[in-house]
């Protein structure tokens, strides 16, 4: 149920939009991101539950403005009003991370894996910093600019890294990800995505 604000305007019903759309063209978020915001592994749809509110809002605004390109999200975000985008960001940021997303991969990747080395140590010969230097311990995320990598489907992480590498995505701060992705091979991308997808969200005491 929508709630009236002090100026008589109604606060959008985020739960209704998530399950039914907004009635003006935006599809239900749950159709791609799951009933509990955990994402879909095979299709590469990202987890939204528990992500930083400001990060989620920036991505929705970027989709709406065209600053971030995606054939599914752009038309959906454009049909959401400013208030609806704000409501959806708040809704998903407050949602607990589903159990299924807390450890997506039943076969943990060992710490001597190439993906682990990139994630935890980087490759300084290529001026490539460790992913955790920006994205936090085990990739749990840091604020609005460095989202969680842990608990995201590997296919989603692969698609985003390739997007930056190919110039299809460019809404990162200071073009940091464009620089990082340019130094990654296809094998690097597969390995590091698999490693983050295999990490439990509460790895070594870390929480989102």
Automatic annotation (TrEMBL):
UniProt-listed SUPFAM superfamilies: Cytochrome c
Keyword RNA-binding attributed: no
Keywords from the named record: Heme, Iron, Metal-binding
TM annotation in the entry: none
Highest taxon listed in the record's lineage: Bacteria
Post-translational modification: Binds 2 heme c groups covalently per subunit.
GO CC term, one of those recorded: periplasmic space
Nucleotide-binding listed as a keyword: no
Residues the entry annotates as binding heme c 2: 131, 134-135, 177
GO MF annotation list: electron transfer activity; heme binding; iron ion binding
InterPro entries according to UniProt: Cyt_c-like_dom, Cyt_c-like_dom_sf, Cytochrome_c4-like, Cytochrome_c_Oxidase_Subunit
Binding site for heme c 1: 29, 32-33, 73
Domain Cytochrome c residue range list: 12-96, 110-200
Protein name: Cytochrome C
């Amino acid at each position: 149920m929508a709630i009236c604000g002090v100026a008589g305007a109604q606060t959008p019903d985020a739960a209704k939009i998530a399950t039914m759309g907004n009635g003006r063209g935006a599809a239900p978020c749950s159709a791609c991101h799951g009933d509990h915001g955990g994402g879909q592994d095979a299709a590469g749809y990202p987890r939204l539950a528990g992500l930083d509110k400001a990060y989620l809002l920036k991505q929705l605004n970027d989709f709406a403005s065209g600053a971030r390109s995606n054939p599914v999200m752009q038309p959906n975000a454009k049909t959401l009003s400013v208030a609806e985008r704000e409501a959806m960001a708040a809704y998903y940021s407050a949602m607990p991370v589903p159990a299924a997303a807390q450890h997506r991969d039943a076969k943990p990747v060992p710490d001597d894996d190439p993906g682990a080395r990139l994630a935890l140590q980087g490759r300084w010969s290529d001026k490539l910093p460790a992913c955790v230097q920006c994205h936090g311990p085990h990739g749990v995320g840091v604020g609005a600019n460095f989202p969680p990598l842990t608990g995201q489907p590997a296919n989603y992480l692969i698609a985003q890294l390739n997007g930056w590498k190919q110039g299809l995505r460019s809404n990162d701060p200071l073009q940091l990800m464009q620089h990082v992705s340019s130094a990654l091979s296809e094998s690097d991308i597969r390995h590091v995505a698999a490693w983050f997808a295999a990490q439990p969200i509460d790895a070594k005491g870390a929480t989102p």
